[in-house]
Amino acid sequence: MRISNIKNDIESLIIELTKQNIPPEKIGSLKDAIEADQDAPEHKNQAFGNNVSKWFRDMSTKADTATWRISEGMAAGTAAGILLNILKTYYGWA
Q1: Does 3 reside within a domain?
Q2: Distance of CA 69 to the CA centre of its chain
Q3: Do the domain assignments include residue 80?
Q4: Which pLDDT belongs to residue 77?
Q5: C-alpha distances out from residue 52 to 1, 2, 29, 72, Å
Q6: CA 40, CA 66: separation in Å to the nearest integer?
Q7: Which end of the chain is more exposed for a tag (fewer CB within 10 A), N or C?
Q8: pLDDT value at residue 42
Q9: CA geometry: angle at 14 spanning 67 and 82, to 5°?
Q10: Residues facing residue 68 across a β-bridge
Q11: Which of 36, 38, 82 minimizes the C-alpha distance to 59?
């Protein structure tokens, strides 16, 4: 799977998340989390700040539920891995 979002480009991140069927309200929550974690010290170690980490954990538990309808036949663990790669690409760590 090719991930096409660009480092620190929120619009390309939104497009990629939309392709993965992430609901708009969850994308909005992620945007808020990214902004809140803008200066997170964890970034120096290529780790998400507290707010993005919480968002990711929340979304990982929602894979293949009514909140996040992933592609048919895709395992929840695979979906979480794709989401992780999308976020790492956004931060420039992939």
Answers
A1: no
A2: 15
A3: yes
A4: 65
A5: 23, 22, 9, 26
A6: 31
A7: N
A8: 97
A9: 65
A10: 63
A11: 82
Crossing angle of the two packed helices 76-91 and 10-19, in degrees rounded to 10: 170
CA distance 18 to 36: 21
1 belongs to a structural domain: no
* 85 neighbors 4 (Cβ within 8 angstroms): no
Residue 35's pLDDT is 97
Q: Could you report the per-residue pLDDT of 45-94, keeping only the tens digit for each?
A: 999 999 999 999 998 887 656 556 555 556 566 778 888 999 999 999 98
pLDDT given at position 67 = 56
Q: Residue 59's closest CA among 14, 29, 37, 90?
A: 29
Length reported for the chain: 94
pLDDT of amino acid 88? 94
Domain containing residue 51: 10-91
Q: Answer yes or no: is 52 within a domain.
A: yes
* Res 19: pLDDT: 87
Tokens found for residue 17: 């998340």
As for how many domains the chain has, the answer is 1
